[in-house]
Hints:
Strand content: 5-15%
Low-confidence stretches: 280-305
Mean pLDDT: 76
Amino acid sequence: MIEFWLSAGLLLLVALAFLLLPVVRGRKAQTEEDRTALNVTLYQERLRELENQQQAGVLTDEQLATGRAEAARELLDDTEGAEPVRTRFLGGKIPLTAALLVPLLGYGLYLQLGSIDNVEKTRELIAQSKEPQPQNLAELIVRLETRIKADPKSAQGWYFLGRAYMAQQRSAEAAKAFERSVSLAEREPELLGQWAQALYFAGDKQWTEQIQGLTDEALQADPQELTSLGLLGIAAFESGRFAEAIGFWQRLVAVLPADDPSRAAITGGIERAQANLQGDSGVVPETAPQVAPEAVASAEADSATGAELTVRVELAADVRSQVQATDTVFVFVRATSGPPMPLAVKRLTVADLPAEVSLSDRDAMMPQLKLSGFPQVQLVARVSRAANATSGEWIGRSSPLASSTQETQTLIIDSADGQAR
């Protein structure tokens, strides 16, 4: 922060110089103006003295004319080389007052409109990018809670903390986290569905008007919102409304990819609901199958690799001359429709390029956000001199592709990063 304020101080001195230079120049002009006025006054007194002498008979008319010419010549000699008098509209007080107000107004406006918080966040992101990845869910939650304390207005931070709480079966805390996320961000359907799901499990699977309102709002904005469809199916099954459960789960199956791991649980739930509906089984299962595709995973991540993408990262020819070998390169994959957080990340330097890297579930930033859980993704490579994964100088993006793609993809960093500041 010291470097920031020193830079701001230097810019302030430059601004003050523009305001005070006219005042200094004005004083010099005033001195010239005063000297010229004095010469004119002396000239006029000399003329009156000559006229008085001529009236007293001391000087003749010819001597009077000669005296006047001599006085005029002296006046011209005295004023020769003087700068022309400039008309001053502002005077001296206005620039001096402005010079005093500029620092105060500048500081006040920066406190209101400036981005000092973003400067601090950027420093934190740089430090965080160098931290080791958490080894288990407990470590991840501790880290998320620490970041939330530092930045309690981060809607994304509250969202991921809620997801982590759900993974530890801490539904009540997850509901509060999702509620905070919704209050800080727009009421996105996914957030509403997650909040409703957390409330349902925190309330011992008792359906409430609040949960109904949240799911209705989510499905009105997005009729294919996964968590809400799965949750409504579970609630209908638990209360014996098997036809409704089948309807919700069939809508859910229709929008899930063929290789989604949740499909088996959903299909099994539909079959059991159909059996109960047809009277083949008179016993209602004690609990419905956990079919919500966005329901959180277990605390320990699956050791299997799952989906894996291989990508060759290169620099465009015109970009190569504008980067440095030590610049950081982030290669990541994110869902084309889903949370903005990267699903998997690898970190390189410009000196490593061209390079071929693999991104898989093993590189997931969070256990419940895996590459295999999203059918369509996008590859991104970003060059950041400040080692900031969220913004940089140059970027390359791929077209949307299936997360099950086996062929090696080529990603060229060829565009200025629009998020760079």
